[in-house]
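For practice. Supply one:
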Amino acid sequence: MFAISSERHMTHVLVVDDIALNMDVLEGILYKEGFGVVRALDGEEALKALGRDRIDLAILDVMMPGIDGYELCGLIKSMYEPKFFPVILVTALNGIEDKIKGIESGADDFISRPFHTIELITKIKSLLKLKKLQEELEHSENIIIALATTLEAKDPYTKGHSTRVSELAFRLALDIGLSGKEAQFIKKAGLLHDVGKIGVREAVLHKGAMLTDVELGAIRRHPIIGEEICRPLESLRPILPAIRHHHERWDGTGYPDALMHEDIPLYARMLAVVDTFDAIVSERPYRNPYRFEEALNVMQCGLESGQWDLYLTKRFIAMMRKEV
């Protein structure tokens, strides 16, 4: 059965145990500490509760019939991925094998029965602080993404560019066999690759005539500025090289660091390919957009130009033609 506090602002803890007396004990401790409690007698009830109620943390008994605590923990983590949702496993088992199995299922902490109240509450509060920190970091990340989107929307020639690059890079990542997690990284890199243009004057960004050396220098600083904007967030660390190096060229004539060949990070090489394609099929102040097949032909003819990673470019062209 479920018992839900009417205080909607309270922190709510899901307690899952097939023994009602065990839940009664936990519920009493949690209520005394000011937490709301959601009860579930088995895994199926727990999953229904998670889909229905606002829950901040789960405490799962390991030894349950049907869906045991380990399996339920894995299911919960999958439900909330990539967000952080804290799970504590309660067990009378103290063997290292049990702890390893719990870690593999995604558990964030353990407590043994019989447990000490202070230890349990300390673990809960620690995990809730970590959850809040993760949410704040995610909020900051979303602000940066919104900044990039807003900046792009002000220019009719680049509106939607980063979103398209993001989606194409994601598809290319899966096409070449990268993991789902890596594909998500490159997708995020695509969204943010041009955020550094916030440091470039609009008159320069929208200029239809040839750029002066000073203006060209300002444009070429945008990958560095983008990296600096994103660097403070730990969650964006994996994509910083992609942001900084997406204008490097395979032959070493790109910017800002004139890297060449495999010294250019993989994500950056991927962005260079899809970024170029979207630029070719998009309208610019100085030219009309190319049609889809024309753009692929331009890239096909430029395979030996030294601009892109040859393997990635061939895979991208094949992927795009296959999906037509």
User: Anything to note?
Assistant: Strands lie at 12-16, 36-40, 57-61, 87-91, 109-112.
